Amino acid sequence: MKHSKLLPRLAALDTNTVSDALDFLALEGATFGIRPLWDCPKIVGRASTVQLGPKTDAAPTVHLITPVIAAVAMDDRILVIAGGMERVSCWGDILANAAHQKGIRGSVIDGNSRDIDGSASIGYPVYGRGVTMISARNRVVQVSSGQPVKMDGILVKEDDYVIADKCGTVFIPAERAEEVIALGERIARRQQGMVDAVRAGRSVAEVMHDKEFESITTKSATS
After folding, report:
1. Buried residues in 72-85 as b, exposed as e (16+ CB within 10 A)
2. CATH 3.50.30.40 location in the chain
3. Eight-class DSSP state of 148
4. Which residue among 48, 99, 116, 181 has the highest number of C-beta atoms inside a 10 angstrom radius?
């Protein structure tokens, strides 16, 4: 129940605010360069992790990620796919259609996608490092799923929280999610107050002084 209540609250924030909350709490989670690969909407959900790696033999294998999609039984899932190779795809439109049919909220790839127009045509959000036409077949395999992975050096575990928008992708450890989101809400309120103050004519140098940001973590910032 707690998790279902946290997701709408997280959805009301953006990646900039969540990144700031993580900074205040000395937590890692913000990534660089994992951005929308088409003009897709913000996605918020919980991680289903996949680890990829290079194919090292000629034996036929089940296509990567398909077992994970088939096993999804919840409506809050975002596929978090690590281990993508430079220049090579690890996502495409057939996978996007399968994920869309299962109600998966989107894919976040530390790697590249091909057939991006296919994902866009069905409204399936894909975040990653770039677009390519080079297939993963006989080049990349699935190594594991449901295990901790590294995304841009950030450790992400199964069921961690994910938010991705036009500025990029942020991960929140599940055990700290309530704390991070609550602080993010305080930051959002304070920053809106700062915008309002600037619009009302207050000096921006005064409004953006370090003391204003430091006060976010005090009890008075909750009002």
Report:
1. beeebbbbbbbbbb
2. 28-172
3. -
4. 99
**Cβ-based neighbours of 49, under 8 Å, separated by 6 or more:** 80, 82, 145, 146, 147, 148, 149, 156, 157, 158
For domain 28-172, which CATH number applies: 3.30.360.10, 3.30.1330.200, 3.50.30.40, 3.40.190.10?
Answer: 3.50.30.40
CA distance linking residue 39 with residue 201, whole number of Å:
35
Contact 130, 149 (CB under 8 A): no
Which DSSP category does 108 fall into? E
3-state SS, residue 77: strand
Average pLDDT, the chain: 90
Q: pLDDT band at 66, cuts 50/70/90?
A: very high
Total residues belonging to the chain: 223
The 10 Å Cβ neighbour count of residue 30 is: 22
DSSP-derived 3-state class of residue 206: helix
What counts of helices (H) and strands (E) characterise the chain?
8, 12
Place of tokens 């009890």: 219
Between 193 and 7, residue with greater pLDDT: 7
Residues 80, 48 contacting (CB under 8 angstroms):
yes
